[in-house]
Amino acid sequence: MRYSRMLLPTLKESPADAEVISQKLMVRAGMIRKVAAGIYNLLPLGQRVVRKVEAIVREEMDRAGAQEVLMPVVVPSELWHESGRWDAYGKELLRLKDRHGREFCLGPTHEEVITDMVRREVRSYRELPLNLYQIQTKFRDEIRPRFGLMRGREFIMKDAYSFHATPESLDAEYENMHRAYTRIFERCGLQFRAVEAETGAIGGRFSHEFMVLAESGEDSIASCTRCGYAANIERAEVREPRPERPSGELPVERVSTPGMRTIEEVSAFLKASPSAMIKTLIYETDKGVVAALVRGDHQLNEFKFRNALGAAWVELADEAAVEKATGAPAGFAGPVKLRVPVYADHAVRRIFDGVAGANEKDAHLTHVSAARDFSGATYADIRDALAGDMCPRCEGAFEIRRGIEVGHIFKLGTKYSEAMGANFLDEAGKERPAIMGCYGIGIGRTAAAAIEQNHDEAGIVWPGPLAPFDCEVLPVNVNDEATRKAAEALYERLGAEMDVLLDDRDERAGVKFKDADLIGVPVRVTVGERNLKQGKVEIKVRKTGEVRLVGIEEAAGEVRRSLGK
User: Fold this and answer.
1) Which of 100, 522, 526, 528 has minimal CB crowding within 10 Å?
2) pLDDT single digits (tens) 172-199
3) Predicted structure pTM score
């Protein structure tokens, strides 16, 4: 491709509304342009990268035995009513009506459509297992779209759905997809982790997220430094040491703490470590009002808390509800003599000389012992994991990394097949619901995550497999005939075996070099008058910054070696 013929409008400055590096660089590199909030045009350079991701995904899904289909973007409401998600999904579901007043939605995901497809076509266990996938546009009406392609409203997704006769068959396909996803992200040249995760609105009983490791990631990942266990913070299990109860516990003492509500204020006033304080949070739930206890230096994990409680929902109580439950304003709640059910994190069990609210305005209790003073508490793992926490699988400890979710695999079970009547006849002729799995990859999000992980102050540093071009040939001065001819010859030679960009613009050399670094092509071949006189050209590897002069006849081989081809 000739630069002069390509729509590649690079910018010197980042747009004012860009928040993360991938968004800034994709706009500056001429890859995307905003149409509306969370909706973007993909320009030719961006489209080339997206197609590279799609090709890898498609090859590995086909290799894993999945079959490609294509489902509609516009979905009739009847299917979503059957699954029960029309009302439950919320405002992210963009609803519309046709000229006849019939309701539809723009598909944010396609469990309903694929289940309808399979129930119409599959009758027998002999036709199972079946794994169907598509690469298609989705729309989710995010309340706050941001970060460019990282969290848009309209996006390209690979979604796959498998159907099985037995749980063992689903387990086998889940592992098959886990391996396929591992190959996909390895082939993309990304550093990533597969972590245990919550299933969210899609449902199911077990899932893994595939996270690209990047400091700018929205999600925190806890991973063991010794074994392979990893999970996002929502799900990461924490193993606590057994409590060792000391002798000679002091009696509880009430102390005045006027106007001091927060852990920081009370800790400083009483000269107590936050780790010795008991944070008491009052929640309203579908099970009634309950208290959640965590150590003062820990954070309650609402996902774990909800699961421990067996609740459908939990919500932090407002001040009026707190005062009704505890008899005191917010900030002074404590577990001693509390008249609502108490759920405490395992770490609280190890507090024997602690500080807690007195359930009385402007007062706290000291020398509180969990074992002695609120022995009726139910204990569970209900806090966020921290670096240094003990792994639940081995004797190792956690490290905390940031990550960007690019893929998610689920065991859905029979949630959709039961609701929508996607049944098959088993070997005994009995009708049973198909058991389902679901497997998604954000295509544009993977491209953006690659930039978040691979960039420097000059621009993008593409992993080779995702780069829009393998090599860029850059003639310093296109008005010099010898330079132009040498560059054209190299362009033709290299173009026979790889994707090559020829910067044939009549532009200053400095501008060309800056644009080359910005768009991040892995190898640059610079053709200049001075080096040509010696029969040489300059090769620069974008990732390492390595520069070397080679003979013009050797250039093609050197480019191949630099690319690992």
Assistant:
1) 100
2) 999 999 999 999 999 999 999 999 876 5
3) 0.86
